[in-house]
Amino acid sequence: MFVRGAKPEDLDALYALCSEQVAHPLPREIFEAVFLGALRDSRRRLSVALEEGRVVGYADLQLQLALTRCEMTAVFLDFYVSEPMRGRGIGTGLMISLARQAQALGCASLEAGCPRVNIRGQEFLERHGFVRTQHHFSRSLPAPRQSEQP
Asked: pLDDT tens across 31-56, in order?
């Protein structure tokens, strides 16, 4: 297993992996724009895990400076390993690699969220030193209404 920063040529593999993660195809053009934007964003670290040259996992880490902490924090926006590849140390390799990068960039802590129903994900985070410290809430917003044409 090898971890490296994502590259533009990883687009197709990451599109397939992210669509697998959410269990439906993502809008391709929007995904491509988000992916390329993430690669250009100096506050993000998009990394891929490779097994025999194939992308089998990824992590999207964002660096944040919060007013109330006065320190840099690295926040996992996404973290995923393909289901058939789990239990082989790939997630651990990603976690170690990104924790080292965050520390080298001056981050004082790592944060990650996980859906309540994803018990395996929660256990993974706890095995890697994460502690439940706060509740995370989310709310969907309705799509903006298109203005009526005259």
From this structure: 999 999 999 999 999 999 999 999 99
User: Count of CB atoms within 10 A of residue 102's CB?
Assistant: 21
- Provide the CA 147 distance to its chain's centre, in angstroms: 35
The torsion defined by the Cα of 59, 97, 93 and 7, in degrees rounded to 10, comes to 50
Tokens read off for 127: 């095995």
pLDDT digits (tens, 9 = 90+) for 58-92: 999 999 998 888 999 999 999 999 999 999 999 99
The DSSP secondary structure of 41-62, one letter per residue, reads -TTEEEEEEEETTEEEEEEEEE
Go through the domains of the chain in sequence order and give each one's CATH number.
2-127 (3.40.630.30)
Question: Could you tell me the strand order of the sheet in which 54-65 lies?
Answer: 2-5, 44-51, 54-65, 72-81, 107-112
Q: What is the pTM of this model?
A: 0.88
Which residues in 12-143 belong to E strands, given as ranges? 44-51, 54-65, 72-81, 107-112
Number of Cβ atoms within 10 Å of the Cβ of 60? 22
